[in-house]
Design goal:
CATH superfamily: YVTN repeat-like/Quinoprotein amine dehydrogenase
Number of domains: 1
Structural class: mainly beta
Number of strands: 29
Largest sheet: 5 strands, mixed
Distance between the termini: 21 Å
Strand order of the largest sheet: 1-27-28-29-2
Length: 326
């Protein structure tokens, strides 16, 4: 599902590609080792309950939504082990950390709320009600606001101080992926069945531009210079690119099947796309726009996370596990 970073907000909110990545909950920076263009499945962590999404802190603690178990699994990405479980609402789907890594938010889809998790206590401590079934979320870098969409075809802005909805925007279709830009001045909304990406001003939820891509637009990531937005398309099947200066859309990379999740390596050279029908991850060299490796995972790979401190990829697989690729 979502293009994942270590904090649940866009990687650009932390750094430009020319700087070392600083991850949530830490002031440490990522290693400079280049990403492996031909990774393999180095470890598999079994997690019953249908893993959908994954987010992680800099210390390697990852939260994985288990939508059939109504829990969030806790995984140590450093040694690929399950370390805990957190009871949440019905059908948890997406999870994000705040910038400090001390609070996580989970979209409890069939409970019609966003669960607030105290990371230190490993416990859902409160909820935020929304209209409809919530799916993707993004949190501003300052922790003041959360954006979430629901199957009511609306985008909601939530004050995290009052835990109430302060604004909303009607969407052309249900969105499954959101992405904030680096300085929090633009929010991108993939409309999935609407076949488009909306560029929204987060301050007032005004739609600034609509990019028409066709197909089913899914996960998104920025290029290192923030000038290009890459979009996984489940129906084309492609990784498409949007030039954010000119607004031009191009069909950048043909894939073996429909892409759902998308991630960018820490060094900015590689894209990783989850092919849900094919049970594989395709690795794309960003400069040449060519697929350079295909990693067979089996099952139904969903969200893809680049774990920068360990220079590895983590993939939530709905069939009951998390794969670690190195």
């Amino acid at each position: 599902m979502t293009a994942r970073t270590l904090c649940g907000v866009a990687a650009a909110a932390r750094t430009l590609a020319t700087l070392a990545l600083t991850t949530c909950g830490s002031n440490s920076t990522a290693p400079t080792t280049p990403a492996n263009p031909n990774p393999v499945v180095a470890a598999r962590v079994v997690l019953a309950g249908g893993p959908i999404d994954i987010a992680a802190r800099s210390n390697g603690t990852a939260f994985v939504t288990l939508n059939a178990a109504n829990t969030v699994g806790v995984v140590d990405l450093g040694n690929a082990t399950v370390t805990g479980s957190i009871a949440v609402g019905q059908v948890p789907t997406f999870v994000v950390f705040d910038g400090a890594g001390t609070t996580a938010y989970v979209s409890n889809q069939y409970s019609d709320n966003v669960g607030v998790i105290d990371v230190g206590q490993a416990m859902q401590v409160s909820t935020i009600s929304v209209h409809g079934d919530p799916i993707p979320m993004q949190v501003t870098a300052d922790g003041a606001a959360l954006f979430v969409t629901t199957n009511a075809n609306r985008l909601y802005k939530v004050s995290l101080e009052s835990k109430t909805v302060t604004d909303s925007l009607a969407l052309p279709a249900t969105s499954h992926h959101l992405l904030l830009n680096g300085n929090g001045t633009r929010l991108y909304v993939a409309t999935r069945d609407g076949g488009s990406v909306l560029e929204v001003d987060p301050s007032d939820l005004a739609v600034l531009r609509t990019f028409t891509l066709g197909g089913r637009t899914q996960a998104m990531v920025f290029s290192p210079d923030l000038a290009t937005l890459y979009v996984a398309n489940e129906a084309k099947p492609l990784i498409q690119s949007i030039n954010l200066t000119s607004g031009a859309v191009s069909d950048s990379v043909p894939l073996a099947g429909g892409a759902n999740g998308l991630a960018l390596s820490r060094d900015g050279t590689l894209l990783y796309a989850s092919i849900i029908q094919g049970g594989e991850i395709q690795v794309v060299k960003r400069a040449s726009k060519a697929v350079v490796a295909t990693v067979v995972t089996g099952g139904v790979p969903r969200a893809v996370l680049f774990d920068a401190p360990r220079n590895q990829v983590a993939v939530a697989n709905e069939s009951g596990w998390v794969d670690v690729l190195r």
